[in-house]
User: What shape does this take?
Amino acid sequence: FGIVQTALADETDAHVISYLVRVAGHLGGVATVRVLAGQLKHPDARVVSNTLEALALTGDETVFTLALPLIGRDEPRIRATALAVLCRYDRTAALDAMVNFIRNARDAGQRHGALFALRAVGGVPVENLRSLQQEVDDPEIQEALARILEDATPEGLPRFLLRTRHGFEKVAGRPGRLGHALRFLRALGAAGR
Assistant: This one.
């Protein structure tokens, strides 16, 4: 491990550093966690993301604490990787932290990145998504949440109704398509009688 540690201390190229942190993660150990933790402050998103993955390989308990603040980083790749790593340790706490981040973030870019991370990880409880969708007032965020909610809902009537409602809301602002949507919904209601 000493050779990798020295190389990490001396190296300045982000490509090489991102490779070295992965090698260090496979070596494991307490010293590895301490050295890798310093790389979480690196300005390159690839280095930070690879460092998170390498830390997860060590299996050390402190990784959760190290990864948790990174769900607030601006880069979607870092947020997605941090969430994936956190889910390995405590999925419920990780998903709750990300949902709370989306709820409280003021920057639309950060919210979109967090939604990207949620969608990438998957398995978000439907109740959390519904409550978040009702609390958020940004139409783009509501749209993204509707898509994630659609993915999270099992096949069957509830998913069909979600898709129908979502599609109806999209065409409601277009008069020509609104008539088609209303006729479709009437026909659907008549077929169900």
Observations:
- The chain has a mean pLDDT of 82.
- Residues 76-104 form the longest helix (29 residues).
- Residues 172 and 179 are 9 Å apart (CA to CA).
- The chain is about 80% helix and 0% strand.
